[in-house]
Write the structure tokens for this entry.
Amino acid sequence: MKQKRALLLCMIYTFAIILSCCKTKAFKEKESDISETEELLPIRVAVQEYYISSPIGYIKEHQLDRKFGLELEPVLYPSGAEQILDIEEDVYDVATIGTAFLYPLAEGQAVLIGEHMKCTGGNSVYVRKDSPILDVRGFNPIYPQVYGDLETVRDSTILMKENTTSQYLGMKWLESIGVKAEAVHIEYMDFDEIYESFSGSYGDVAVLTAPFSYQAEKDGYVQVASITSLSSDMYEVVIAARQAYETKKEALVRFLQLLLYANEEMEKVFEDKVEACKRWYEENGVEFTMDILKKECRDKPFVTAGNYDIEEFGKFEYKYAEYMAAIGNIPPIRLKNVKEHMDAELFREALERNRKNPV
């Protein structure tokens, strides 16, 4: 009796192993068929040569786009100001972009579909050590760490980049200390030109974003305001061109899912993140130092499925739009357009896919 039972158990165990192997083989064959036969969805991504778009470099380097059924084509721009000029020219489908997102939303040319990096750190306003602006601190008690007032800032030449986080920060600083734009001289330049000019003794104030803000600290310039001291948060975002939003919804969701996945991979090990960003800078000919790059990687975490609350989607962007309308950068009537051109659902779907079925 015991021998028969042992033989029966042996037969059952052997059958289970064979069945398991067959199932595993069938699954692998099915998985292989999907990856080999599925048509890749093309998607053109407007990127910048800086940290904001480094996950795109990581994606291409590791061919992650194909894992998500995409064929990703980067389109390189020097900044968001240039990206928005092509928004209706069918040059790209989606963009990783800073606060320049506002203008195509206000005009109904694009849709906000994601937030991909918290960029509060690394955005600051700088002066030289002998600036009279440093004589006044906490003029506005709401912002006790902010320097300057009307008398010390009046007639200053302020260097900033138009349609970017630089302009937002610079104008917010002036507002916080009671200075209207008409009381100063604002000059708009590219990021590298701002630092080069300021280092060459031109201008009184430089509004800088990373990596230039870190270089300013290294070179001994003094911070008079920052996004943090002005009690604000800021995100770099993802926008879709209107035509792509209307016709390529599945590709856009996959792209957001892919971006979230790449962000998560980069955030796992800090040293690996730094190296990935280093390769992106080198590929695009951007000058940098390792200490500055490490600060940027530390101060600006990428959004992942694990560190993001979808209920916060759009709050910063609309607050920013209201502010820019208040200072005359967009007509207040366009605020309705901004609100109507924010869609959290594609990002929500991408987040859910990543949480349920991480690659």
